[in-house]
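Researcher: We're teaching a course module on how sequence relates to structure. For the next exercise, students receive a sequence and then see the predicted structure as tokens, so they can try to spot secondary structure elements on their own. Here is the exercise chain.
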Amino acid sequence: MTLHHSPAAAEQLSDPRQALAYARIHSFIEAYRNEGYRIADIDPLGTLSVPEIPALLPQSHDLKDEDLALAQHRFLDGLGLTNVKELTHFLSRLYCGPLGLDASGVRDEARRQWLFARLATRDSGAEPGAQERAAVLARLAAAQQWEHYLQQDYPQAKRFSLEGCEALLVLMDALVERSSFYQLERLFLAMPHRGRLNLLVNLMQMPAADIVAYFDASRTTQAAAEAVDLPYHLGAETVRATAHGPLGLFMAHNPSHLESAYPVLLGMVRGYRAAHPQSAMPASVVIHGDAAFCGQGVVMESLKLAQHPGYTVGGTVHVIVNNQIGFTTPNPLDPLNHGYCTDIARIVGAPVLHVNADQPEAVLRAARMAFDYRMQFGADVVIDLVGYRRWGHAEQDTATVTQPLLHGFIDKHPPVTQLYAQAGWPGSEEGAALLAASSQQALAGFRGSRASAPASARSAAAVASKPAAPDLQRLRQFVERMTRLPEDFAAHPAITRLIGQWQDCVSTPDQPCSWNFAENMAYASLLWEGRGLRISGMDVQRGTFMQRHAVWHAIDAAQGVQQAFWPLRQVAAPGTALEVINSPLSEEAVLGFEYGFSVQAAAGTGAGALVIWEAQFGDFVNGAQIMIDQYISSGRGKWGYPSALTVLLPHGYEGVGPEHSTAYLSRMLLLCAQQNLRVACPASSAQWFHLLREQALQADCPLVVFTPKSVLHGQAGSQSPLSALLQGGFQPLMPDAEALPEEQVRRVVLCSGKVYYDLVDGRTRAGDVRTALLTVEQLHPFPQDRLAEVLRSYPNLEEVIWVQEEERKQGAWLCVRDAIEASLPAQAGLRAVTRPDTDSGPTASKTRHYAQQAALVEAVFPV
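Model: And here is the predicted structure for the students to work with:
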């Protein structure tokens, strides 16, 4: 039965007594709609303190029995209600049962009306028949028996049991069915530890033996033996058969940072859609723990991020596995003070469906209602699955040490399977018999499982031949198209100057090219070839240092609006994706999103996009270090995730403070091993041009680039001639531009970044003709063989010096020292010239900075 009522209806009644009666009834119903969830029957243990809410008392509205006789309106039709007691009972059943709707954070009235109408209307599947009830009971039994199987056969295994929230499996089954009903092709899922092993087996169809292999040395499979991560971090892919056809399921891998997978999954969803533009946006479901959902900031970042253009995924269904505890710390619901772990969802106006995990049919209703809301409005929705945790945080914990009272209730509480068997088949033994049969069948299936054939290792990405740079005619064509402004587009003077500079750059091959020109021409050449481009981060359209100008702005005087012109769109091949997105003020969520996007871009069909995240300043990566450590540097080794994500970190000591000076190069290098990352620090615009193209066309691992800031951008010597862009490629080690006679060289100075130009000036002032200057442009993998070859070419070499702007314990020195030593000829020694170590790190004062910079140069080239 649907309740229809309008606040304006009372005004249409001619009888004042009827109008007043209508208003009282309406006010009473509204109170239940808005506050009923606070006293809903959502706590399986019955330990929740239910407050007395005055608004839910009829006397608060001065409601009397005669009001129902006077106001026979549409929302009472067919209900047969004759007095206030019956109305109260009806509203209590509707709004305060095992499914409570909290729409208090929903600001859109149309969405609120949809939600309340849907709650008041019984779903066609809300009253399951005997066959569906048996199927639900079987799924609950499968969830329970998996936990019992591991507990009995592997009691020491850490599994993060789902017991107390077994209905999660039923909920996920319903979301799978709804995804298929809407003809979606894939559902992407992220979740933390709790219940992951259960869902891997029962939802993702992973053979039980593949999980058991992690716990039983005698049955170890090759996949488990080669694993470098824990089983409850594992992801999986499968195809589920549903009543509406097959549905692809993807569960993302997840490290111990519980909520970090949330933005990664969002990026995967959008990345998959970009790689498969003919498909509908996949569904995204994120499972959270109650304490983590309200406690970790990346959740808030990601909620807001998904509302931002360039990051939307059509809404996410959030499922809180709510045990009301975080490790050992209580995290109870607090209806009296409006305190719920889901309150953070208010920042995006998401509705919350609180549902009792011991009421599987209510759980089914919540799942269907939530997914339909997501499809109807393309917005986030939260299901708060309120249960309990039968054991401790892990099964080996002794939970009664910290929660003896709570576990007294839990020990006496029957499992959901037993409760549902009794409730679904009341007064008979049929439910118990079905439960016994389903449990036995599930347990036999787990114990009889055979390990699947180990997955073949991912083949290394095919490395293309060295990409040819565009010729002069092509670059001139790019500039002509990119600088052809629309009519009445009055460009800013800075853009007018930029247009002139670009046109000068392509006039002759010996013209110097700015970093801005080199970067834009790299992107233009890729887009022309049909290679997609996605750049995101704070202020990336313009660039923090006015270094990019990917979008030009002007005012349309006639319309009084601001116009935008995208130069790169003028050269992109038809259908080629181009996104340059100014992100919200977020690092962790945005970088996680871009990583997820890059994984799907690398795994997609056709040419993957060049995916770039740029920090506004290099030290801003501090806020995203979890993503660097747990995903970008290790995702391929742990999980086989392909990614060619490019991370740009502005770096260079310019006297702008201890933080903004540095992107913590040493921290990145400490994460490097084998071929997991490339770390580069280009010192010229041509190197920048070739590095970007090489990453897009050849890379099979992430790239971290320590990019220049203002000083190096303005350094005339770093602006390569156009001819350097037209030929060659990126060089990990740049030779000495002076090309000194090899017999004359007694010293070699190695450095990286803008200090090279200070050293060039110092060598000139000192009149030194015995020292060769080499720049190490790629710090990992270190160009050891090439360096050894160059050093051997100097027969009279006596000393090799490493020079860096950073202090000795920062920068690259401690990470590249061994590789340099291994490259030395027998007669040469090695030493380093760095800033002195201080407690405060890089210098804040420009005066002190310049003094220290001069001291570095003086130490190498004394005058």
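Model: If you want an answer key for the exercise: The first helix runs from residue 16 to 35. Confidence is low (pLDDT under 50) at residues 1-5, 451-464.
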